[in-house]
Amino acid sequence: MFIHTATAWLCFLGRLEERHPTREPFVRYVEHYVDFMRDQRGLSPATISNCRDEIGHFLAMVCRPDRAIDALTIHDVDTYLAYQGNHGWSRVSLHALASTLRNFFRYAEGQGWATDVACGIEAPVVYREEGLPLGPDWDDVQRFVASFVGDSAIDLRNRAMIMLLVVYGLRRGEVVLLRLEDIDWCGEILHVHRPKQRCTQQYPLVATVGNAILRYLKEARPRSAHRELFLSVEAPIRPLSPARVSDIVRSRLAVLGIDIPRRGAHCLRHANARHLLDAGFALKEIGDHLGHRSASSTRTYAKVDLSGLRRVAEIDLGSLL
Predict the structure, then answer these.
(1) Residue 44 belongs to domain with CATH number
(2) Catalytic residue among 221, 266, 270, 274
(3) What pTM value is reported for the model?
(4) Annotated catalytic residue within 52, 172, 194, 269
(5) What is the span of the domain harbouring residue 102?
């Protein structure tokens, strides 16, 4: 607040010259493509934002001040993909990035901005349902939740967020999108906005989750004009980012020594699905709970149903052989 007030006062006195960031020459191409994705393809805001960031980062790295977009070649794309691959990107992430760049250059070629790039972009091969949805065991999840026991503002906020991730299997982006009006305390209903489906899903407000949120609101949430439920606890007060949620999960899992391949917030969504599967819920019920659009998104959890696979393996097929 002090910095904001002091900056405004110095500008009023004419003693502070504001810096205006230079506009990159390729920005207009990206914004044209953003308009196309929104108006013509009808993509969700989350998808458009991701595409804008990925394309902007690519162009910022390969477009030098003296180099226009029509000078880019397939070699630039291959070099960029190789660079990201050498810096920890998985094949799945590289596959998605290549697809994003291919779609952009198809549009650019249609507009006459570039030539003969899109057709040459090759992505790593990703086989359907090749991976396993890996998450911590439920015993580890319970130990993880139990570790958020402090009375500080940060502890109360983090516990409320963790309960939403664990109990409902929400995505990190869905947690940070929650607003104060999304909780119907009288009807005990939680309204969750699904950016991928562009719809709102309703859940019964579980008592343990509701109590955690209520305590956060009463004792820890800063007074702010922001309507988002979860805010930073130190100035400047602002809504949390999805990356911050993953940072909280990742750091606590590391402290507890819970060793899994991926420690981001999404691992708790996988753990929730596996727990429901072990409890005997059908894949359709699990998919509805997680907000999946397609049954194929839920079907992958059948591969980690070890007890079910073991029962299949024990079937006597002697009479059929």
Answers:
(1) 1.10.150.130
(2) 266
(3) 0.69
(4) 269
(5) 27-120
